Model the fold of this input.
Amino acid sequence: MEDLSSNNESGCLLSHFLEKISKRKRGDYMALTGIQIFKLLPKTNCGECKYPTCLAFAMALAAGKAELDACPHVTPAARGQLSEASAPPIRQVVIGTGDYEVKIGGETVLFRHEKTFFNKPGFAILIMDSMDDGEVNKRFSKLAQFQYERVGLTLRPELVALKETGNKERFIELVKKACNEPYSIILMSYDPSIMKEALEISKGKKPLIYAATIDNHEAFGALAKDYACPLAVKGEGLEEVASLVEKLNGMGLKDLVIDTSTRAIKEGFQEQIIIRRAALMGKYKPFGFPTIVFPSEMTDNPMKETLIASCFVAKYAGIIVMSDFEGESIFPLLLQRLNIYTDPQRPMTTQEGIYPINNPDEKSPVLVTCNFSLTYFIVSGEIENSRIPSWLCVMDTEGLSVMTAWAAGKFVGDAVGAFIKKCGITDKVQHKKVIIPGYAAAILGDLEEELPEWEILVGPREAAHIPAYLRMQKS
Done:
């Protein structure tokens, strides 16, 4: 798909909107500059914040690239003045509690390669009061069913969106059922009395209230304050959303989620970019909140809905509400989310140590590899598939793959030998044989010198050949 963030049309829309809001005193919403922040800092240049000078730290704060807590010497008075200025330009909002708590917002950059994206979007499945018990139970079960282990993480959707369409009693039943489940909740109703009853039941789950509109925002704002729950703001377009956010901010509400009501793909995608740019580049506070989108309302085609959702995973939704979940739709979306919301400057790693696979004993083979997560999970998976009890020794190579670590001098003979000696594998096996990756065959000589009493075996170059290799060694 064409990247609308760099598209001229999107840029023109942003310029047009910023021109409009400038007439509404956009400057009132500008954060403190680096120099203004510097004047409030202790000016000790102690370096404890990891920046060489207080001025450098102030500039990082102004750019949203540092946290005020990094400075141990800032005075309480200055901290009060700086806390808002040093907060992320997009507020972090927390929905739910416990294991399924969802954090959205808190972002500081337009593109993940500039720094990283922090809080991944939450996926919600839609459950309506018009659905029968069978369908409702089926949808709740999908949240438990579609959970996947990958690179040491559990990938899963987190939310149920309960929608009231006129059947109050049925809606309240759904709320009660959802409160007995671990998942986070979105309550969808425009009726303040129904929402109040639902909140009285679910307040302990800290649900997202959806949604405050131009007609009900005062009542819904009061409910959000009374029950200390985040509130979605639904306006007809960007300007109405901004106006509603200002009114709700005036009521003291800070934990807001934005919905512009747009259900056309192109316009919705453009608005997500405009909101993010206005918050980060224009410092426009009414847009300094995460967003919620509804691919479920943009198409009746399940495959197209998945493609639309994938666009909003990339840019820049906080919550994505789907009409339904299927394995072939939610799994690729969870993978995409993992890829985008992984720090590109920090490799994923597995903890150094000894990993028993298939219940090994003192006679089982010993293999060694690096701690790059993808390498570990591929290698361990192939060992598991072989059904040969084995010990896998994972060495810390700072998240580098075998070849890269070897080239960088982190997976070389003396280092691997030292690791084998200290890791404790000698306490677990009676033999002294170790299998090294085929791609690291070049370390064989040095490793034999480092471990003169050990027999060093060179394993296959490709992980897919590990099962056959282990069976051959066993025979």
Remarks:
- Confidence is low (pLDDT under 50) at residues 1-7, 24-30.
- The domain at 21-86 is CATH 1.10.15.40 (3-methyladenine DNA Glycosylase II; Chain A, domain 3).
